[in-house]
Amino acid sequence: MEKGLFIAFNKDTSDEIVNKWAKAYNDVRSDGTMEAIYKKWDTSIPTYQIPKAP
User: pLDDT tens-digit profile of 12-29?
Assistant: First the structure.
């Protein structure tokens, strides 16, 4: 069974907010924070980056 991480925003959420969230998520992936969390909980680390809003 495949596991995943998902997030959804209200359709009225501004691109600015979505992009800030995506940057924060990608930053914790880049600085090793996410890896440490996933290792602590013995879970596979996602391999994808979240793209910017259109």
Answer: 999 999 999 989 988 988
